[in-house]
Amino acid sequence: MIRTPPLPPARRAAAHAPENADDLAETIALAESLRASDSPAAGLARAEAIWGRVPPDDAPVRRRAGLLLLDQRYRAGAWVDFVELALELLPQLRAEGPRSELIDLLRQLSIAASDTGRYEVALTAGQEAHRIAVEIDDVGRISLATNALGCAFERTGDPWQGERLLVEALAIARTQDQPHPLFVALNNLVAVRIGQFYLRRDAQALEEARAPLREALPLALEALAQARASGESFRTLVALGNVGEVLVGLGDIGAAAPALDEAEALARGGYAAHLTRVGCSQAELALARGDAAAAWERLLGLIEGAGNEHLNTRLRLRHALWRTASTLDRAADALAHLQAYLQLERQRSMTQMRAQSELFVTRVEAEQMRLEARRHHARARELEADTRRDELTGLGNRREVELRWPQLVEQALKGSGVLAVAMIDLDHFKRVNDTHGHGVGDRVLVAMAALLRAHTRAADLVARLGGEEFLLVLPDADTERAREVCERLRVAVQGHDWEALAPGLRVTLSAGLTSGPPAEADRLTRRADTALYQAKSQGRNRVVPI
């Protein structure tokens, strides 16, 4: 973590000098456009310089420049300065009413305050972010706020309550097509499980203590794959650091080394806070390799550069120094670092207890938050399911076809490499509606959906495309297999007791089908549609392959 220095006297005086508002706005706009390409150090320096020029009475410019600086401080890991500026800007953002920027600032404040030991700030900010996200029904930000609260509870000494909240946050994030909430949920859940390992390793057998790491590894690898796909170096650095730390804890030295080397190279691009963390993992890796001397030298360099705000990092460093000194038979050094470690633990425990006492944090409150997050998760899943389901028949609709198509292609490729598509249409359905009424027509469609389900496998896709038209997709099925399925369905429809719905009612279907190597949905459905047209032109109540 980095603490930015105060402005020198000349800069402080210049900060209050009159300046052309348009020029300053253009400077801020330029800095915003360079945000993604700037190194953390360059971006932070640019934002700090702009902040020093903002007139104290220009609220809109102050808000915009402040949010830019907060973003850069967050990227650089300057948590202490981030917390102070966030607390300064919060009243202005609150006065503007519930907005996405307010939620984002509150949840980032919760994370930063957690990492600097300001637990009361972390918990109140996380709770406020969650409440506002629920008010505006922003599911993605509900996940992010739940995530921040989970981290806050973990930092205040309740990693199991924190883990439960983080699991809920991940479940909510998986219902959304938003990469950011998913990455944050994966990353922080991994971090909490790493923390559980550190709590257990001195009190349990090593293999038992490693259980949280085994649970964390697939999540860490998923987060890394997502980070690489995003192309963002900061995300990749964070994910690589987690993967490397997990692998070191699991004793997988060969796999840990390249991950940590790559993370360290990225951290040297200006991410000083992460460089310390990755350096500690490198030292633990050296210790695991049996090179305690190299681990000792690296750890001594890291502990000298760790500031007072690095409580969790300093705890880890002191523990590693104690273990390394013990390995090297440096008894006096081992005792000194063990004492320093225990003192830091007492300091953390006292701060945690004070935060919980001041805020009356109880397990009941945490459980209520978790249950509320679960309700939103369930609601999000229901809403998502509704958008993919035909309201009348309960079959999938066109959106379901779009979303399921890649899975069906993958399934076919794992099998025989072919996929069959059938277009099915009820014959003379307009006559059914005209003769017996639309109510009977609707019941015919519902009965047809039931027949389709009865004659297909769970892995097959059955969808209603509209009106009396249905789509059937059979992964791992050739033309002959698809023809057998469609023919059985045709016979079942023809022989169904339709008169139970209306006297004199008769229903038949026509089907056109095709198969071949998986391809784009449009191409295969067009071929099946051509076959359906041929079935209609040949007299209906038949199946025609093409």
Would you kindly provide a written description of the structure presented here, covering whatever features stand out?
The protein has 546 residues and is mainly alpha-helical. Helix content is 71%, strand content 6%. The protein contains 24 helices and 5 strands. The protein has helices at 9-15, 21-33, 40-51, 59-76, 79-95, 100-115, 119-135, 139-155, 159-173, 179-200, 206-209, 211-230, 233-250, 253-267, 272-289, 292-305, 311-327, 331-359, 363-387, 398-414, 429-436, 438-454, 479-495, 521-537, and strands at 419-426, 461-466, 469-475, 509-516, 543-545. Helix 8 (139-155) packs parallel to helix 10 (179-200), helix 9 packs antiparallel against helix 10 (179-200) and helix 10 (179-200) packs antiparallel against helix 12. The longest helix is centred in the middle third of the chain and has 29 residues, at 331-359. The chain starts with 8 loop residues before the first helix and ends with a strand.
Q: Which tags fit this structure?
A:
single chain, 5-stranded mixed sheet, 5 strands, 71% helix, 6% strand, elongated, disordered N terminus
Low-confidence stretches: 1-18
- Series of H and E elements: HHHHHHHHHHHHHHHHHHHHEHHEEHEHE
> If you average the pLDDT, what whole number results?
86
Multimeric state: single chain
Overall shape: it is: elongated
Based on helices, strands and strand pairing, what is the structural class?
Answer: mainly alpha
Lateral arrangement of strands in the main beta sheet: 2-3-1-4-5
- Tell me about the largest β-sheet: 5 strands, mixed
Please report the distance between the alpha carbons of the first and last residues: 66 Å
Rg (C-alpha, Å): 31 Å
Number of helices: 24
Strand content: 5-15%
Helix content: over 70%
How many β strands by DSSP? Answer: 5
